[in-house]
Specification:
The protein is about 60% helix and about 10% strand. By secondary structure, the protein is α+β, with helices and mostly antiparallel strands. Among the domains are: about 90 residues, no CATH class; about 210 residues, no CATH class; about 170 residues, no CATH class. α2 packs across α4, α3 runs antiparallel to α4 and α11 packs across α21. The relative contact order is 0.04.
Length: about 700
């Protein structure tokens, strides 16, 4: 009953409050409630409200548990208690809602305070940044003022001692300037200005003098230009006299003009070879220049312009001009260019690296029988080497295949000097230049197209690449031609080449006779006049055929025979016996005797490795020659000795097929049963053992 009285009292209070509030508008009521809750949220403690909130939540849980227990009982009294519990729980929920509103009010107030504090901090930070910027600007201005340099500091003034010594007293004023640096600087500037005005007057006088001299030179040049046509008329009038006296003045003048366009190495070659030709006469050596002179002039002009650009790069003003030109050219290059494939770029690079000078030098060396070798010297601009092409001219037609091969230009020039085959570039930088241009092929791949870079050709042009390898400055690959080296090399080369041509002509005649079956030994060669064997075949063979023969293995292993040798096969027969001789003729024949490797086909196959007699014959033919003797060791003499040794070998065998017709003191001798291969010219001739 007490609870009912309490509820009735609350209803009365609410009714009285509602009656009092009825006088206010709803907006004012809401405003007053909001203000009351905001003031209450500031007054009340948040921690206490949190504890109250937890306590109310615990009461709600307790009420819910009590209601659950009462519902389980199901009595009338329990129903009444449940109703009371519901009312109590509703009141607690109202209190929870109020606590929630108070917390939200506190949260909103905290956010507003935080926002105001952030705004205050931001304004303070902005003010700090402005102050720092102003301080930095002031520091820069102070530094700029401290680093300020006046224009007069850039002027190079005369030393102070010279100033007081040379300047007049009204300018120097030593009593004032020696104690005041500012006045001293002003006095020195004034003295510098006076000196420069005097020098400007002298310069103007010199310029006027220069103009007068230039005018005099121009007048003299005009007179000389007017004299040119008259000189041409005089030269034209003297042409009949030149023809009568066999003078080559016009040709020499044209050659001299062309020689001025040659690169330095070829110019040295032309000058020294021409001088040697003048001494020996045109019947021995002739020198000429061929090629496109207009292209040579254009190329020389381009080279001169490039050198001028390089020299002008030393000054700053020229550098600025070049930069401006480059900028202008870049602005103009706005149009699209045609696309170039990688293959075309690689081919263009290869052509540029292998580019040759437009002019060539022709040196023709003639022999006494009108046999001549025309050498064409060309200079490779980027690789800095000289290459040679050659044309062989024979006075009479050559019969026979093997005889014609020895007179080809390649064969004549191979190993003209020991080890110089012209198969690779003598310049150490060639491989690096090819790699830099993206060319994977070696230089030897292009020799058939451009010519051979013989070492003697480089030396004739004054180029010595050994200075790069052995010199101190290995980075400098631009070799300057040497005049003394060219002079010595030209004379030695022409002398050596004439000897080689003479030897090859004689070898050609021998090979012609051998191909036709004739054997003509050299004069003074002593041998038996009765020869039963005969030369049935003579032909040239390849290196593959020579190297596959078992009888040549020891020559190849000892490096006595290489691919550079001229290789031949000779077949000598006598009845059923056949002797096959593989002959290797070296490049400097007849200075070195040819090497014979023999294979005997009679009662089996025999060679020097399996038969002592064949080995003895090889020794006699290959080594029984005296280099100091007057009688040279010719190929025909060796073939003649081979036929003689074959007859001695077969006749000393005691076979009825080969009856003896030569005088032998002993057919065999010693443990090795050596045959008498040595011929002594006593009476009709006798054969003895060595």
């Amino acid at each position: 009953m007490g609870k009912d009285d309490l509820s009735t009292k609350k209803r009365r209070k609410l009714t009285t409050q509602t009656s009092n509030d009825a006088k206010l508008s709803p907006g004012d009521v809401y405003k007053r409630v909001v203000e009351f809750e905001e003031s209450e949220a500031q007054i009340r403690s948040a921690d206490k409200d949190a504890c109250l909130f937890k306590k109310l939540c615990q009461d709600v849980r307790q009420i819910f548990s009590d209601v659950a227990e009462l519902k389980a009982k199901g009595t009338d009294e329990a129903i009444e208690k449940i109703t009371a519990k519901k009312i109590e729980a509703s009141l607690i929920l109202v209190a929870l809602k109020k606590l929630n509103r108070l917390e939200k009010v506190r949260t909103r107030a905290g956010r507003d305070a935080l926002h105001k504090e952030k705004q205050r901090v931001d304004s303070t930070h902005l003010l700090l940044q402005n102050l720092l910027y102003e301080a930095d600007h002031l520091d820069k201005e102070v530094t700029k003022c401290l680093q300020f340099k006046s224009k007069d500091e850039e002027i190079e003034l005369v030393p102070i001692k010279d100033f007081y010594r040379d300047a007049p007293a009204e300018i120097s004023r030593p009593d004032i300037t020696k104690t005041d640096e500012h006045q001293q600087q002003l006095a020195r500037l004034e003295w510098e200005l006076r000196q420069r005005r005097e020098l400007a007057g002298v310069c103007s006088e010199l310029v006027a003098s220069k103009e007068r001299v230039a005018a005099a030179i121009a007048a003299a040049r005009s007179r000389l230009d007017a004299l040119g046509p008259h000189l041409k008329d005089v030269l034209k009038a003297t042409k009949p006299l030149q023809e009568c006296l066999a003078l080559r003045l016009d040709e020499k003048r044209a050659e001299t003009q062309a020689a001025a366009l040659l690169p330095p190495p070829l110019f040295l070659l032309y000058a020294n070879a021409g001088a040697y030709s003048d001494v020996l006469g045109a019947k021995n050596v002739t020198v000429a220049i061929s090629g496109d002179e207009d292209e040579a002039r254009r190329q020389e002009q381009v080279t001169n312009e490039e050198s001028e650009v390089v020299l002008s790069n030393d000054s700053d003003s020229d550098l600025d001009n070049i930069d401006e030109d480059l900028r202008d050219s870049k602005k103009k290059r706005h149009h699209r260019t045609a696309k170039i494939s990688k293959e075309e770029k690689a081919e263009a690079k290869k052509k540029e690296v292998l580019k040759m000078h437009p002019l060539n030098v022709h040196v023709t060396v003639k022999n006494s029988d009108e046999t001549s070798l025309n050498l064409v010297f060309s200079y490779m601009i980027h690789l800095k080497i000289v290459v040679v092409k050659f044309i062989m001219n024979v006075s009479k037609p050559v019969t026979g295949v093997s005889a014609a091969d020895v007179l080809t230009g390649d064969c004549v020039l191979t190993e003209l000097y020991v080890g110089d085959t012209g198969s690779d570039s003598p310049h150490p930088a060639t491989a690096y230049l090819l790699n830099a241009a993206g060319i994977s092929e070696p230089f030897s791949h292009f020799i058939s197209e451009i010519g051979k870079p013989y070492i003697w050709a480089q030396r004739m042009c004054g180029l010595d690449f050994m200075t790069i390898v052995s010199g101190e400055n290995k980075s400098n690959m631009n070799i300057q031609p040497c005049q003394s080296l060219s002079v010595a090399s030209v004379e030695n080369f022409i002398f050596t080449l004439k000897k080689r041509l003479k030897a090859r002509v004689e070898l050609m005649k021998e090979l012609q006779d051998l191909e036709s079956g004739k054997i003509v030994p050299s004069k003074g060669f002593s041998c038996s006049l009765k020869l039963s064997g005969s030369l049935t075949q003579w032909q040239s063979i390849t290196w593959h055929e020579y190297s596959q023969a078992p009888s040549t293995a020891h020559f190849i292993s000892e490096n006595l025979v290489t691919e550079a040798n001229m290789l031949y096969r000779a077949i000598v027969t006598r009845q059923s016996a056949k002797l096959v001789a593989l002959v290797a003729v070296c490049s400097d024949y007849p200075k070195k005797a040819p090497l014979f490797s023999l294979t005997m086909h009679w009662n089996g196959t025999h060679n020097a490795l399996t038969n002592d007699d064949i080995r003895d014959i090889e020794r006699v033919i290959n080594t029984d020659w005296d280099p100091s003797a007057k009688v040279p060791c010719t190929l025909s003499s060796q073939i003649m000795k081979l036929l003689t040794c074959l007859d001695v070998l077969l006749e000393s065998m005691g076979s009825p097929e080969f009856p003896p017709d030569k005088v032998m003191l002993q057919s065999v001798r010693g443990r090795n049963r050596m045959k008498p291969y040595k011929f002594l010219k006593q009476g009709a001739g006798v054969f003895v053992q060595y």
